[in-house]
TrEMBL record:
PANTHER family in UniProt: 2-ISOPROPYLMALATE SYNTHASE 1, CHLOROPLASTIC-RELATED (PTHR10277:SF9), HOMOCITRATE SYNTHASE-RELATED (PTHR10277)
Family of the protein in this entry: Belongs to the alpha-IPM synthase/homocitrate synthase family. LeuA type 1 subfamily.
Residue sites binding Mn(2+) per the record: 14, 201, 203, 237
Coiled coil (residue ranges): 360-387
Name by which UniProt lists this protein: 2-isopropylmalate synthase
Keyword Coiled coil: yes
A single GO cellular-component term on record: cytosol
Source organism of the structure: Loktanella fryxellensis
Pathway membership, UniProt: Amino-acid biosynthesis; L-leucine biosynthesis; L-leucine from 3-methyl-2-oxobutanoate: step 1/4
EC numbers for this chain: 2.3.3.13
Amino acid sequence: MTDRVLIFDTTLRDGEQSPGATMTHAEKLEIASMLDDMGVDIIEAGFPIASEGDFAAVSAIAKASRNATICGLSRANFKDIDRCWEAVKHAAKPRIHTFIGTSPLHRAIPNLTMDQMADRIHDCVTHARNLCGDVQWSSMDATRTEWDFLKRTVEIAIKAGATTINIPDTVGYTAPVESADLIRRLIAECDGADGVIFATHCHNDLGMATANALAAVEGGARQIECTINGLGERAGNTALEEVVMALKVRADIMPFHSRVDTRKIMAISRRVATVSGFPVQFNKAIVGKNAFAHESGIHQDGMLKNAETFEIMRPTDVGLTETSLVMGKHSGRAALRAKLAELGYEMADNQLADVFVRFKELADRKKEVFEEDLVALMRQNDAVEDRIRLKSLRVVCGTDGPQTADIVLTIDGTDHSASTTGDGPVDSAFNAVKALFDHNARLQLYQVHAVTEGTDAQATVSVRLEENGRIATGQSADTDTVVASTKAYINALNRLIVRREKTAPDHDTKGVHYRDASA
Ligand code: KIV
Ligand code: ZN
């Protein structure tokens, strides 16, 4: 028997907080359902006080939850805590998570003395505990907090009824030895430590988030806070897939286990990459496109003789199928449905009918359709309530420019056309969109990747737009790079329009993370 480590996923809170990673309501619900399905113990579903949208998402996730505990974040003040409880109370297993920055730099923001902060922690944890039987306390920036004061905050929180004590490395500053020692010492020296679970929450600023989280477990932590693909502010958080697979593969030296079904990792990783607009780097551990690819002759030869020569885990352990070549133009509907289910997409009949039409169009243009092509195809199925649609596009390119674009857009059901020039085909197409749908959005990011190999490969394009502090990311794929770019641009614009109508600017909700309000 090994010790169980609880997996606390914060993709929908800390992950979504990274600028540009905003997800829609439906996307958050879908990711929460996948997390619940794969055996995550606690899902931090959002920050209910941050916006009406966050509140609605946390409430809906709480109502739909099956096995996982649903947690909401709140600063250490009664108003935040009450709002958080209103959202999570619908869950079979609700949790209130409340925090304050305890390091000298963070104490200076609300300008509280140590005694005032100690009183605030006592009052807030007591208040939260009167509402909910499961309360998590976080001393934010714990790894840069003076030892005596950190110990004091932890003891107060335990005495006031906290059931989980989280020790965040908020700025990714600690190192493995220190991470283990800190937890070990807190457990050894804090009154009441044996009655609570200690959690570790690491950021990846120095690339040590996974190592620090695992070291904290060695030191006695029994909850790891993490995100899918390591999504999160700045350099991100501890990656769920990394800690879970490390515990599984190295059970020989780390006698701990989680309840996560690792075969569901790839599907959720792809889905989070799609809906957040943050692609996974090719050489990312566990979920990168190259994580199980063997290109060099020596490696391929070894792999053919015995897969263990160069592989410490099997691709199937993380949900990868043996080959990514899937289908061609003769494949039928049932095969498409089965393959999509394997990739994490459960389809209703009417959705499948639409996807099948587009699959056939793609199979006509491409000889072979790979898993990656299907994932790209599904991204276009995520259309928000689109006000703007691309009807047709013709771009003329040449060595002696300028490039011209003739475009027809359907805006709110009516067709509009424009002809514009630009510095290159993509620029001329973007100018054409602007000519028909006037806006002040600034292009923050434009990225093109080939989905597979070959000159008939689809290009998958990500576009990030910013307008008055609101950020939206759009994606699309097509065998024509300019068409993919234009569709991604329009997709980002459609999302921006939705955000304009429904939510406050990103800097209002995201900045709230570090601001403090009086209790
Ligand atoms: O990084 C951090 O300190 C946090 C806390 C709110 C737990 O995300
Ligand atoms: Zn964090």
